[in-house]
Every structure is written in C-alpha cells, then in structure tokens.
Amino acid sequence: MSGTVSSGIWYFLMPSHLLPLAIVFGWVLSRTAFRRLGRWIVAVAAVLLILAATLPVGDWLIRPLEARFYSSEPLPEKVDGIVVLSGAELPRLTEDWELPQVKGHGERLIEAASLAAHYPRARVFFSGGGATDQGLTEAEVARRFFSRLGIAADRLELETKARNTYENATNAYRLAKPQPDEVWLLVTSAFHMPRAVACFRAAGWRVTPRQTDYKARTSGSEFEIFSGTAIQNLRVLDLAVHEWIGLLYYRLQGRTLELFPAPRSA
User: Measured between alpha carbons, how far is 245 from 56 in angstroms, rounded to an integer?
Assistant: First the structure.
C-alpha cells in the first residue's frame, strides 16, 4: 500500500475523525427503519468521543511506545553516521515562503543538527520524500534547515523517495551502505521509534536509537495530567493509535520481524 493511499485511509480511521463520523452516520441511520441501531451507534460513539476528549487516553497508550527505547545512558564516544527520518518538514509552506518550515516533530531535525555538531566527522543521512507538485521534497526542506544551522552541504546525504517508515529503512540502507562495525544513530520521534527500529533491523541495519519529540505527559500533578484540552487529548490519541496499528500492520505484511521490538540489551 502506497504512502498516499494509506494516509488517505488513515484520515478516516483516526479516532478524532472516526468517532464524529460515526455519530453522523448513526444519526442518519436513526432517520430510517434502522432507527434503534442508529441511536445505539450515536450513543456509543458520543460516549467514546467524550471519554477520549476528556481523559488522557492517548497518554496512556503512547507512553509504552515512548518508554520502549528510552535511555539515560551517555552518547557513544564514536559515531560513524546519523540517520534522521522525515515527518517534520512542510514542503509546500517552505516553497511558498522560501524559508524551511517544520511542524510538530521539528525536534527530529534539531536533535540531528545537535548530534552532527557533536560528531563533526559523522555522516548525516536524511530519508524522506513527500514531494509537492513542483517537486520540492521533505529532504530538500531538511537540507535547507541543516544549512541554516551551519551543517556543511558535503556532510549531508539525502534519500528523496521514501513514503513510509519501511521505505525509510530499506532505501536508506541501500544508499548509505553501513558497515557491520559502524555505529549509526537513528533519530526520530519517541512514539515512532519502536516501528522505526523494527524496520531498520529487518533491513539488516543495526542502529542506536536517539529519540526525541515526546508527547506523553509523565510529570506534574494528576490534575495537570488530566487537564489537557480536548484537542490535545485527541491529537495524542490519534498518534498512539496510528503507531499501534502501524506496528501490527507492518508485522502482518512481513515488513518487520518483531511486533514490539525491545532494546537488544534487554
């Protein structure tokens, strides 16, 4: 399934869209001979939507993903390369305003730039396509972003065809040609790291996770954790459900060899 098709399907399956659509569908059904079924669908969907909007369900679901590869260990002394995955870039806005524009996962690029400065001899490899009609890709946005932060152009290696995490791993491995004894850091969002690691392992690439962009609220009083806005709660829930479905889908499709990968030292 292509990235475009899967994204289109997910647009209707994400909880923040599916539950309101179910309410509308149930209401329409309630105006027909199936009124009892329609009312039941409306009631169930409305209750689930209220719970999802008022309770930190997304935090509960996303926390295991973000904690899976969390590590307080210091960085390795020697790093041969840094591979960062797309997901933060906004090609169309970058094209419109002629400045690199990023969205909520911009920490991926910031962390990669920080690591590149810390390891001045490490290769910096970015993987991501997402071209606009005019051809600007996520990789090009990343190149402009890194350039503005002082990362030399001859250090950057760009993969511009990947449409999903599986293609990130397979395309990057084919182009980067990492050696078995090399140390590579993998930079992506914490909630996305389990699926990313599973894909890179399946591709034959041993990477060291360097996750960023945490979403789960794990500190503060219970009131603070339970006081997230409805939009915030639903947004985190969408991310969590997407990743759990992604882990299962990739495993069933044979794109990964592990359903929920763990650190090798575990």
Answer: 19
Q: Which bin fits 135, alpha (ψ -120 to 50), beta or left (φ > 0)?
A: left
138-160 confidence digits (pLDDT tens): 889 999 999 999 899 899 999 99
How far apart are alpha carbons 257 and 262 in whole angstroms?
Answer: 12
| pLDDT tens digits, one per residue of 76-108 | 999 999 999 998 899 889 888 989 999 888 899
pTM for this predicted structure: 0.89
Give CA–CA dist 115/23, Å, rounded: 47
**Domains in the chain, CATH or no CATH each:** 3-65+221-244 (no CATH), 71-214 (3.40.50.620)
Coil vs helix vs strand at 266: coil
Nearest to 262 by CA among 58, 84, 65, 61: 65
Structure tokens at 1: 């399934």
